[in-house]
Specification:
The protein is α/β, with parallel strands linked by helices. It is built from ten helices and 15 strands. The protein has helices spanning about 40-45, 135, 140-155, 170-180, 190-200, 215-220, 240-245, 270-275, 285-300, 315-320, and strands at about 1-5, 15-20, 30-35, 65-70, 85, 115-120, 125, 160-165, 185-190, 205-210, 230-235, 245-255, 280, 310, 330-335. Helix 3 (about 140-155) crosses helix 9. Bound molecules: NADP nicotinamide-adenine-dinucleotide phosphate (NAP).
Length: about 325
Amino acid sequence: MDAYELQGHTLDSLRRLLLPTPSPGPGEVVVRVEAASVNYRDYALATGRYQSSLPRPFVPLSDGVGRIEAVGEGVEDLRIGDRVVGLYATAWQDGPFRSAYHASKLGGPLDGWLAQYIRLPANAALRAPEFLDVEQVSVLPVSGLTAWTALRRLQLRPGAHLLVQGTGSVSLMALQLAVADGIDVIATTSDEAKAELLRTLGARAVIDYKRTPDLAAVVRDLTDGRGVDGIVDVVGGNALLALLDAAADNAHIAIVGFLQGFEVNGNLIAPIMSRQLNVHGVSVGGRRDLEDFLAAVERHRIEPVVGAVHGFDDAVAAIASIGSNRAIGKPVIRMD
Ligand SMILES: NC(=O)c1ccc[n+]([C@@H]2O[C@H](COP(=O)([O-])OP(=O)(O)OC[C@H]3O[C@@H](n4cnc5c(N)ncnc54)[C@H](OP(=O)(O)O)[C@@H]3O)[C@@H](O)[C@H]2O)c1
């Protein structure tokens, strides 16, 4: 089959080559890939910025969708032709997260979606919503599920205030899911054209984070002085310190991303302790979460926002584009 492998720690080490077409073992399925989407993690792995000790080579990309081509012995609930998405941490079926699940991730260390076919354990293949096109479905299993999991951690009730940051895929899905649940969303962006989209998707207020020196003060003004009850933090770094000032007493904060970095230099402990803030780490989600998320997408007819659509020949450029991505939504690669 036609595929790409990440063989090293640079974009040049993403090689297109022919690999053996997989066949399913007992309890497995083989999926003919229709579309895959690119996450920051894929770019970070392909440029040596993240987890450089992860063994190479592997087929990259963690987010994808396709139709079942072959089923192995003992697989009963999936049929040839079913459209499925893959569970990112394939071993995380139910219950709380365990560090051992990192070893079962698609797109490194396990082979991912940037190939004509992918082999999956049958219990890591879930039927995809048929009302969406393949590009839209391709952003659900990683960034979409991450937004779902983050919101579950925040435990917000209808009418509660939520802050989401920027117009990346996780933030947009968090906004869409929260609005569907009657939560009041304040969003940030650095771009007026994107602000319009955020309002269209249901944000009550949009703040330009680059032109607003005291973001927390504006958020407090917008919430009668209280601050927000929940934050989905995709930025990290020192921006987290300023963000904590925007949180209400007892607020919940989901730590999701590291766009500004992993390190925080400053007083993190005092605000968390004195205002009893609840900080939750989020790592995508398990099978039960993905089932619940896909059901919510169907129920609310949520249409994910996608970015530029690339062909398979253009896959390296699609991954590289994340490094300078100013577009709304994630790049998607179509296999046909
Ligand atoms: N923990 C997990 O399970 C998990 C899963 C998926 C992704 N992630 C992480 O989550 C982060 C976001 O990923 P993504 O794919 O949703 O988005 P993305 O495409 O990486 O997000 C880019 C957007 O973020 C906004 N942004 C950048 N710097 C910002 C800042 N300082 N303040 C506010 N917004 C800022 C910008 O929005 P504007 O252009 O509108 O300004 C930018 O367009 C990444 O770090 C990714 O690795 C984590």
